[in-house]
Amino acid sequence: MSSLKLKGVRKAFGTLEVIKGVDLDINAREFVVFVGPSGCGKSTLLRMIAGLESITSGDIEIGGKRVNDADPSKRGIAMVFQSYALYPHMTVRDNMGFALRFAGKPKDEIARQVGEAARILELEPLLDRLPRELSGGQRQRVAIGRAIVRHPEVFLFDEPLSNLDAELRVHMRIELARLHRELKTTMIYVTHDQVEAMTLADKIVVLRGGEVAQVGSPLQLYDDPDNHFVAGFIGSPR
Ligand code: ADP
Ligand code: MG
């Protein structure tokens, strides 16, 4: 399972600088949560780590290897988005196996991987259903299943629960914690939900205007925020 390092990472869209020099050390198997207001660059940062967006300058290392120009499929990363974008005409089984079929894996191996992911996510009874026959929470689990079958070293989640209602979010939060314990992978999770951040994170990265405002454990940030911005975001009384 991979560690991750960002060194002076910058991103500009034309003349608009949206990531302004981010340094980060993420340990293997850590659950790291990025929080910060809308537009502060959380998604852009994830997309650069995934290789879906080029970096303007700086370095990204995954498992000690510089991946600045590496193809997204060669980074050992899988990303789960807020909109689950399942293929509507494919069953849960085929949705989950799609990336593996695309990669030309043998049928029995695909069946094994999909079966394992379905077990972990408690999707076994739903494998032959179509996405429209699933609830929102079930669809999001399928989207996570599509990531799991690829056995990534690092999972990236971009506000995966924000389309779900409050009750389901609580349930999925518990499932994600269990998933992290079971898979023992590195996870980077973007949210603007303080409760999610405080309960899931080993380490929280507070972002503000394309820069890191503070990094620490939930308790550190709560007890000792560097400034009012962090305090306000973490919900501590200062
Ligand atoms: P967040 O996920 O924290 O809400 P984003 O990473 O989506 O923030 O966006 C950060 C900033 O970068 C915003 O000002 C956004 O408008 C801008 N931005 C994101 N993608 C693009 C793009 N492809 N072209 C131009 N500006 C972009
Ligand atoms: Mg975003």
TrEMBL record:
It is found in: Cell inner membrane. The keyword Transmembrane helix does not apply. Keywords: ATP-binding, Cell inner membrane, Cell membrane, Membrane, Nucleotide-binding, Transport. GO terms for molecular function: ABC-type maltose transporter activity; ATP binding; ATP hydrolysis activity. Its main location: membrane. GO terms for cellular component: ATP-binding cassette (ABC) transporter complex, substrate-binding subunit-containing; maltose transport complex. The keyword Secreted does not apply. It is a peripheral membrane protein. Belongs to the ABC transporter superfamily. This is sn-glycerol-3-phosphate ABC transporter ATP-binding protein UgpC. It comes from Paradevosia tibetensis. The chain holds residues 1 to 238 of 361 of the full protein.
